[in-house]
């Protein structure tokens, strides 16, 4: 039977066997999906003649984190206590989420090297049709230090919100929700990368602003600076500690915010914080992410597709009694 849980109770819910979890995505599916993704990214790097610097501190840190997550997940595969169950679920979910995010960021480099031109004029035309004035937003932020600080913090919350969601799911024995969240994040990342390959853009700051830049947002001018270097094959070694997301359209921050809200909404204890953080991130995305509104609309659509696909899979699994 299910037993009620509260946020940070004195003791975590009982380990598996105590709760039924219909629609649980099999762990082997996630592992196989991640392995296939890693193989695809490796193939992209090989085809582009790129390598990851193996002896940097960041590579060492990520390697140690991966070893720790895999080791904990294996050691706690049959938990004998609530604490072991929490450790197992947390190592699984955080490990997979971090790995997917890292693979996605790395994949943008070889994909960018194979792109041509940009669709910035089209994106700007869409913004005009939507009556969105990016320059007005940018000027407002550039003129107020408080908006810059708040925007930067909100934009960086892309790492904080999933930690809250996955941490709570591990504590409250909600593996079904955690795995569905990870699966939707993976699907959204794949869709964004596929679209980026054919819809490259450098962003409104690089295309609309002329003259000295009074305020350099969190995303700076990385697309405008790095994509030409990658196309010219002048950047062949990737430092994991200096990764920059190069996907402008669709906006992955927007897709992530929608996924976070969808994942956090059923978790009553987290609904308020998740909605507030995700909404703040959305408001910060045009300037801090140097995104057109068209990018954000596309990102929200990507999230909608990902959520729909994962929901269909979960319903199918639940109908089969899994």
Structure write-up:
- There is one protein chain.
- The protein is 67% helix and 1% strand.
- The protein has 322 residues and is mainly α.
- It has helices at residues 27-48, 57-75, 82-113, 120-129, 134-142, 145-156, 160-171, 175-198, 204-208, 222-231, 252-264, 268-288, 293-319; strands at residues 51-52, 237-238.
- The protein has a two-stranded parallel sheet.
- Mean pLDDT is 92; it is low at 1-18.
- Helix 6 (145-156) packs across helix 12 (268-288).
Main features:
two-stranded parallel ribbon; single chain; 322 residues; 2 strands; 13 helices; disordered N terminus
- Kindly report the oligomeric state of this protein: single chain
How many β-strand runs?
2
Would you tell me the structural class of the helices and strands? Answer: mainly alpha
Question: In which range does the helix fraction lie?
Answer: 55-70%
Order of helices and strands: HEHHHHHHHHHEHHH
Q: Number of DSSP helices?
A: 13
Strand content: under 5%
Q: Give the N-terminus to C-terminus distance in angstroms.
A: 16 Å
| Rg estimate, integer Å | 21 Å
Q: Which residues form runs of ≥5 with pLDDT under 50?
A: 1-18
Global geometry? globular
- Chain-averaged pLDDT: 92
């Amino acid at each position: 039977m299910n037993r009620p849980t509260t946020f940070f109770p004195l003791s975590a819910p009982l380990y598996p066997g105590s709760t039924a979890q219909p629609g649980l995505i099999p762990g082997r599916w996630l592992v196989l999906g991640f392995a296939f993704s890693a193989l695809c990214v490796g193939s992209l790097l090989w085809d582009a003649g790129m390598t990851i610097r193996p002896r940097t501190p960041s590579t060492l840190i990520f390697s140690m984190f991966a070893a720790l997550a895999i080791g904990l997940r294996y050691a706690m595969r049959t938990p004998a206590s609530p604490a072991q169950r929490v450790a197992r679920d947390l190592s699984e979910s955080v490990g997979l989420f971090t790995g997917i995010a890292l693979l996605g960021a790395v994949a943008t480099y070889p994909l960018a090297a194979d792109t041509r031109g940009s669709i910035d004029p089209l994106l700007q035309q869409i913004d005009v049709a939507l009556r969105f004035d990016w320059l007005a937003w940018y000027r407002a932020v550039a003129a107020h230090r408080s908006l810059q600080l708040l925007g930067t913090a909100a934009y960086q919350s892309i790492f904080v919100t999933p930690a809250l969601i996955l941490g709570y799911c591990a504590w409250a024995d909600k593996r079904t929700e955690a795995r569905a969240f990870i699966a939707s994040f993976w699907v959204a990342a794949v869709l964004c990368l596929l679209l980026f390959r054919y819809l490259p853009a450098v962003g409104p700051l690089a295309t609309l602003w002329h003259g000295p830049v009074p305020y350099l947002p969190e995303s700076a001018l990385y697309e405008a600076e790095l994509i030409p270097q990658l196309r010219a094959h002048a950047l062949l070694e990737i430092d994991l500690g200096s990764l920059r997301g190069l996907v402008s359209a669709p906006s992955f921050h927007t897709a992530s915010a929608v996924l976070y809200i969808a994942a956090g909404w059923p978790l009553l204890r987290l609904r308020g914080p998740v909605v507030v953080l995700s909404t703040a991130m959305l408001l910060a995305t045009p300037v801090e992410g140097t995104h057109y509104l068209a990018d954000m609309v596309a990102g929200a659509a990507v999230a909608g597709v990902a959520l729909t696909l994962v929901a269909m899979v979960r319903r199918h699994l639940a109908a089969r009694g899994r």
